Amino acid sequence: PLPLYLLDAIRLTEKSKMLRQSFGDQVVSSYVKLKQQEWDSYARHITEWERENALDV
């Protein structure tokens, strides 16, 4: 089954022997690093909903 979440997809991509054989370790590692940075940036972002409903401001 396909992963439902980006972080799960990143982890599967990193472990994929097929992708590493097809594209090479360097390409897959660079792609995974980029997507991990995107995920980290997203995870640090506070949404408007969180501001309105979860934070005591």
Q: Can you put this structure into words, describing what you see?
A:
The chain is mainly alpha-helical and 57 residues long. Helices cover 75% and strands 0% of the residues. Helix 1 runs antiparallel to helix 3 (25-44) and helix 2 crosses helix 3 (25-44). The chain is elongated.
Layout of SSEs?
Elements: H1 6-15, H2 17-23, H3 25-44, H4 48-53
Domain GS catalytic: 2-53
Protein name: GS catalytic domain-containing protein
GO molecular function: glutamine synthetase activity
What is the radius of gyration?
16 Å
Give the total of beta strands: 0
Structural class: mainly alpha
Fraction of residues in β-strands: under 5%
Average pLDDT taken over every residue: 93
Shape: elongated
Question: How many structural domains does the protein architecture include?
Answer: 1
Alpha-carbon distance between the two ends: 41 Å
Total number of helices:
4
Order of helices and strands: HHHH
Q: Ranges with pLDDT <50 over ≥5 residues?
A: none
Summarize the biggest pleated sheet.
none
The portion of residues assigned to helices is over 70%
